Amino acid sequence: RDQIQVAGSSTVLPYAKIVAEQFGETFTNFKTPVVESGGSGAGIKEFCKGVGEDTIDIANSSRPIKKDELKSCADAGVKEVQEVRIGYDGIVFATDIKGPDWALVPADIYKALAAKLVVDGKLVDNPNTKWNQVNPALPDWDIAAYIPGEKHGTREVFETKLLDAGCDKAALKAAGIADDKEIGKTCIAIRKDGKAVDIDGDYTETLARIDSNKTGVGVFGLAFYENNADKLKVATVEGIVPSTETIATGKYPVSRPLFFYVKKAHLGVVPGLKEYVEFFLDDQMIGPESPLAQYGLVSAPDAERQGQRDAFAAGKTM
Amino acid sequence: MTDIPLDTMAGAVARPRRDIGLKARYAAERRFRIYGVIAISVGLAFLAIMLITIVSKGYTAFWQTTVTLPISFDEKVIDPSNKRATDPSVLIKANYPKLAENALVAKLGIDPANKPMMLKLKGFLSEGARVQLRDIVSADPSVIGTTRDVNILAAANLDSAFKGQIDLSVDEARRKVSNQQIDWMNKLKADGVMAEHFNTGLFTYGASSRPETSGMGVAIIGSFYMMVIVLVLALPIGVAASIYLEEFAKKNRFTDLIEVNINNLAAVPSIVFGLLGLAVFINFLGMPRSAAFVGGLVLTLMTLPTIIIATRAALAAVPPSIRSAALGLGASKMQMVFQHILPLAAPGILTGTIIGLARALGETAPLLLIGMVAFVADYPKTPFDPATALPVQIYMWANEAERAFVERMSGAIIILLVFLMAMNITAIVLRRRFERRW
Amino acid sequence: MNIMTEQSLENAVGDKMNAKSNEVIKMRGDKVGVFYGEKQALFDVNLDVRQNQVTALIGPSGCGKSTFLRCLNRMNDTIDSARVTGKITLDEDDIYDKNIDVVELRARVGMVFQKPNPFPKSIYENVAYGPRIHGLAKRKSDMDQIVESSLKKAAIWNEVKDRLQEPGTGLSGGQQQRLCIARAIAVSPEVILMDEPCSALDPIATARVEELIDELRQNYTIVIVTHSMQQAARVSQRTAMFHLGYLVEEGATDKMFTNPDDKRTQDYITGRFG
Amino acid sequence: MNIMTEQSLENAVGDKMNAKSNEVIKMRGDKVGVFYGEKQALFDVNLDVRQNQVTALIGPSGCGKSTFLRCLNRMNDTIDSARVTGKITLDEDDIYDKNIDVVELRARVGMVFQKPNPFPKSIYENVAYGPRIHGLAKRKSDMDQIVESSLKKAAIWNEVKDRLQEPGTGLSGGQQQRLCIARAIAVSPEVILMDEPCSALDPIATARVEELIDELRQNYTIVIVTHSMQQAARVSQRTAMFHLGYLVEEGATDKMFTNPDDKRTQDYITGRFG
Amino acid sequence: MSSLLVLAIIIAIGVVAFVIGRQRAAAQDTGKVKPHSRAHYHGWWAFLLAVLPAVLLLAVWDIGSSFYLDRHIHAALPERTADSKVASEALDASLVKSLAKGLRRLDAGTPLPATFAELQPLLIAKGVALASDTQDYMIPIAVDANTVQDRLGLFGAVVTFALSIAGAFYALRQIAPRARARNNVERLMLWGLLAASTIAILTTVGIVLSMLFQTITFFESVSPMSFFFGTVWDPRFAAAGSGGSQGQFGLIPLLAGTLYIAAVALLVAVPVGLMSAVYMSEYASRSVRSVVKPALELLAGIPTIVYGIFAVVTLGPFLRDLSAALTGGSPFIQGQSIFTAGLVMGVMLIPVVSSLSDDIITAVPRAMRDGSLGLGATRSETIKRVILPAALPGIVGAILLTASRAIGETMIVVLAAGVAANLTANPFEAMTTITVKIVNQLTGDLEFNSPQTLVAFALGLTLFALTLVMNIVALYIVRKYREQYE
Ligand SMILES: Nc1ncnc2c1ncn2[C@@H]1O[C@H](COP(=O)(O)OP(=O)(O)OP(=O)(O)O)[C@@H](O)[C@H]1O
Ligand SMILES: Nc1ncnc2c1ncn2[C@@H]1O[C@H](COP(=O)(O)OP(=O)(O)OP(=O)(O)O)[C@@H](O)[C@H]1O
Ligand SMILES: [Mg+2]
Ligand SMILES: [Mg+2]
Fold this sequence. Notes:
The complex is a heteropentamer, with 1 copy of chain A, 1 copy of chain B, 2 copies of chain C and 1 copy of chain E.
Chain A: E1 5-8, H1 13-26, E2 34-36, H2 40-47, E3 58-61, H3 67-75, E4 81-96, E5 103-104, H4 106-113, E6 116-119, E7 122-125, H5 131-134, E8 145-148, H6 153-166, H7 169-174, H8 180-188, E9 196-199, H9 203-212, E10 217-221, H10 222-227, E11 232-234, E12 236-237, H11 244-248, E13 255-263, H12 273-281, H13 283-286, H14 291-295, H15 302-314
Parallel strand pairs in A: 1-2, 1-3, 5-12, 8-9, 8-10
Antiparallel strand pairs in A: 3-13, 4-10, 4-11, 4-13, 6-7
Chain C: H1 6-14, H2 19-22, E1 25-36, E2 39-50, E3 54-58, H3 65-72, E4 82-90, E5 93-94, H4 102-108, E6 109-112, H5 123-134, H6 140-153, H7 157-160, H8 173-185, E7 191-195, H9 203-217, E8 221-225, H10 229-235, E9 238-243, E10 246-252, H11 253-258, H12 263-269
Parallel strand pairs in C: 3-8, 3-9, 6-7, 7-8
Antiparallel strand pairs in C: 1-2, 1-4, 4-5, 9-10
Chain E: H1 3-28, H2 39-76, H3 89-105, H4 116-125, H5 138-174, H6 181-221, H7 224-229, E1 233-234, E2 248-249, H8 252-283, H9 286-301, H10 304-327, H11 338-363, H12 366-373, H13 379-390, H14 392-408, H15 411-416, H16 434-443, H17 451-481
Antiparallel strand pairs in E: 1-2
The structure holds adenosine-5'-triphosphate (ATP) (2 copies) and magnesium ion (2 copies).
One adenosine-5'-triphosphate (ATP) sits between chains D (36, 41, 61-67, 79, 81, 114) and C (170-175, 200).
């Protein structure tokens, strides 16, 4: 096999694509890598199938690999896996460009989207139907939020960084839920009456929904928003406008790291694999001025990037 | 046929006659006919709506903006230290975009020292210029030092602006094209240097992360391979299986089982065929991932039930008297089937093929798990090389963040439909030839 | 409603032919021509069908008898390539007129086809089909009665009475032919066109059908195609002789069989033809 | 090869029947029974078909003539519900034996069906089909000759010679019937089974077909179902009378028509049956 | 010798056998005995005997020798030690194999350098990219592997040719006037047909097997009771599940959604498709039909994602606004709804019903139509009472296919009806289907060996069983009401 094979997350795909394309253009003696889309889970599964010509070399993932997965990897012979963190993906709220400005805090989101709220000390089905019932500063719009579906890694971030963070746990405890686990569960339970719409497709689908429902609020990746800034207006979270800078510095709260995993055993075996990874990690690719950053990837701080390069060069495995 | 409107009542009839409820029956007849017309109109209306939506969104994708620039292949830029004789990689790594930029700067009369202006120029021309110019140079290294007019692709955003798809009323900061760039664009347009050309790249380029250099080339080849495989496998196997089941198999529990089974396979979600392909063809038989060959096999399995169901129905519709006639002359059952029944069943078989292939041509889900939903930039040389397919390209472009891809996606849909029609036309002509009323 | 009941027929049988009433012309063909595509199969046929009489069409195979018969209830409409010229009237109405209603026409002018074509339904349903679409039976029992009497008239009742629910296509050739006769008379049309109704029948069944024809004639008008001169002579009052698409001669059966005007008729009848 | 050429036939016509050779038994049915599903349509039929003779099967409609005929070349195999018991031999070989090749059997025992069933192909192809699959013509011209002579023998050549390329389904009923006869004799089978081959034919065409049968008999063996006693008497040497699925009587035609043993035969022949 | 070349030669032998066989058979036909089979059947039989066993042998040999070669390479590789440069033996072997393949590209007679460092430029000049981990010790192994492979190939070719020629001779020897060549050829054809129909069975077995084990694993962590009878679908994701919050995997909402959407789609596709078919085959002129039929077939060829986008962007909002206008305020049709999804899907499926039914209706013999029209039935009565019943098996087949497609469709449902697993009776609300969940659970970011992903397999099998029942019922109906014309 003379072609690198990459599979995995569709969030990482656009970045991997840019890198693969430029890699092919720069290293003309190697073929352009093939980058599959299909989700982190399926990608890691293929990755963990074993070592050899007929298995893939790299798995893209929008979440860290799980212990379980690593274990089954090792069982199948993939004992040495190198982890590479390429940067961060910001998660933003946006509305139609013609709408008013939005300033959200996690509590607003929790109150608008949670399945159950504590009202007057009792746990009841979420009674809010309009945003301004949640927070008078918000517009008088019917609640209609397009949030990532459960298949997406983003959903997890959404739940932990917003719902859980905005959840009034004390009130829940006061309402009679003693168990911490139970509280955690209640916090992240999302209403199912059609006000919060799961989107299992990509952000284009969310955009289409906002297009057809001008008073909808959608959750997007930062990259996607930036590419569609002429159609969307972004909301601040806790007063911070999401941007590569605010995310990189950690001011903007909602973001997640993106990864890929390399099969170390393949490094000298698949022509170009090593060069590809190095090329990917180069500042020309993932630095703040790089095409990936232009596309919307939030670059990791300089030290972290250098750390990644060093770790890879040193052959550090998980 | 002497076709006389059935809805006119016999007015001339004078004598009182037996009442056979004609009035009501004619009303029923008329209603029935109207239902037919309505049904067809509904179908055609939806078709029209779909086609109009697709075409109106996608036709612009067939044009692409380019800037014709006199590129001077400056040795100082390409090979500053004059090492190309010893190190061929110089020509590969050279800063080709710079050549294009220089030419553009000269054309627009910008002062190269004016940094802010130069910065605004960024993103005017496509990054694809690198490959384009490099190909020119590696094809003929003697161009170095000469000047030549080259059509350089404009960047996707400028292309959109040129086609008037960018809302200039939006705040400049929120757009991808600055006012300065618009001014330059208008200037170049007025000079006749910047113009739209037929977008051959849409048909020839492979996948790319840049809208302007992305095309369906790999997808067309991949789909072509897959359709050939599906046609070559599914049609004969499907027809053979139907013949066996309909004409030869004894009617018993076991063949009932097969029949139910085949019908059932038609209801299996297409992604499950992908699972099967992954398990059997890739994991068990060790075939390569992302290959059109495996895709073709998976789509074959997916298409088979459709063809079998259609073929069996068509075979069953041939009247038994034809069978007796052939057998009575001493034809063997094989001969009877292949020489008499099959030609008469051909229209139905072809219809099944058309519908089956149409679906196979448009499916993405089964290809997902065998790695064909992928970014593939290089042309596949054989069906065993990585490739994508038309619907995959559509699906992937539909999910792109950059707007320019939406247009390409609609263009791709048009190409797919044309591909489909081209594929169907033979079948439709054949079907008409075989059609026979008796 | 106009169901033929056993009684009405029995009454009718007693009547003697009334010379006057028989001269009523039920159907008239005027310069009828038929083309199948380019090829003309029937040329300028002028033929009258008289009420309450049996008209026999004879002539060598392929001479256009069936074609003419099919013109009389416009069954040729269903053949794409067929085109009819000239004029045919039923009770003085032009049946090819725009205003005429083919369905009613065919309900009035019934047909038994040359090749028996039972529906792939049960025997009962085959016979009940016509009465049902025309709404001739209000109740199930009426329908049963129509089915039974039709099958009886077609001389097939005994053979099928135990298997009314079995498919009509599982009958023998002659049984199918009689089933088709039963099916046609079940709707009691005014004119019945029969294309060789006895071709697959044994002499006894043939005799029964001929009896039936004779009975029916009292109330209906019948046109029959036959290859048997004996049969033509036995059942018909008038005979028309076709040859190569032309009507050669037409006249009272007695005369035709004893003293035909045309040489060809004579040759044909005496079997010297060909 | 075994093509019937005009000459060989002409020579044969001159021969007088040889009583000895006629006693060769070509086919023999031994306790043949046929069931359609549960229903038995044929009971214990023992019947010999003699070589170079014409055996006529007569009997009222629905008595099982076609059923028996279809047993002789195993066409009943194609009816799902049909089941045959007993034994039938052709040249002493059991035709229901496992080793027998039905296809070859049917090439040797040809059949003309009761309902004409031409292929929806051209007239030429209809006739040429059999010879083609059996490889009876080496060249196109041979084939043309076979087609022409078969059509001529079936007395239809004049009617179709100008339209050989038109579909066989566009012929008149009688023409289709003759086409099917032509088609069957084109493969020159050893035994020809004809199920009412003249039912849709005019007297002259009938006479021609009867002549053909007489000619064919010199070299072949023929079994014919007919409803016409006259025809049976004219063409056959032996006659078998069926009734309600039973073989009532079988014997030399002369005797059967003059002095039958069975009362039913007598009644049927004289038309008193029913 | 390459397998392709061997194959070509075998076929050539077959062709020669065919020609000889045919001639011999023709020559033997002296007219004395009636030949059983025509000469070309003898030819074909000779061809088949010459080709089929040889091809089978070739296939077996190829597979066998590649196994043997593998073993050979593995055996030649040095013992693995802790400091082996290559991670695993499999990789080691694959490096040798690609090296061997690369070596074949070198010009014959090129002196072979002993080290990979020297070899690499030579290979690169030939356009062979090799992995940098290739070791020096692999070069002799690769050279040896190539020789072994050549030898195996040659031997295999000789044996196959021998078999092929033997087969041809055997067949040619058999030729005799009474030899049943046709039966032999046809028996082989029949086996071919049978083999083709077993592919369907094998596919089914494959599908069941490829889902069964994961399904079992799934049921180890989720009880079948709560899966089959659960009314809440909320699988959560393993990632957040670290806190132990196990999701709920209730099948009922998905099942209901599947049936509901399929029913709506059928309600659109079947009447419209059937009436179109009837109109095209019975009323429309030939020219109209020849345009309309392919035009409708285009509907089946539009990628489903396009329908989906159409539903999201155009139809969904349109219906919502329409319903809002009707009630003067709040819309009763949601932007995403079963109704929208079913409608769009129905449109896509129209041609499946219309084209297949049209063919079957056209195939009903004219005698049936004539019989009915001759009794004074109107066209529509003829169609309804005679033609449609006669065409029933084909039509039911078409409808089954439609239903199947409706059940198996994903993209349209995702976009038009959403992914929320609600349980509702209101067709204007969002619901989702089993298929959608299968796809989503398989392609998401979820952990691959968690119940969240495995549930896809359980869903797949359940759907399989469900449609099986549907098909059995359909078979029964067809059997019962089938009307077979003559
Ligand atoms: N396919 C069938 N299924 C069931 N019964 C049948 C089938 N074919 C014939 N029969 C029955 O078997 C009996 C004998 O039929 P057969 O066709 O042999 O009669 P036949 O002597 O040829 O009559 P005809 O002179 O009317 O053609 C009849 O009662 C008929 O109804
Ligand atoms: N559908 C058709 N297409 C073309 N020609 C036809 C068609 N039907 C009949 N013909 C031709 O028209 C002529 C008259 O046919 P018709 O069926 O009227 O004959 P007929 O007198 O009924 O003969 P028969 O006694 O054999 O039934 C014949 O030459 C026949 O071949
Ligand atoms: Mg006729
Ligand atoms: Mg019969």
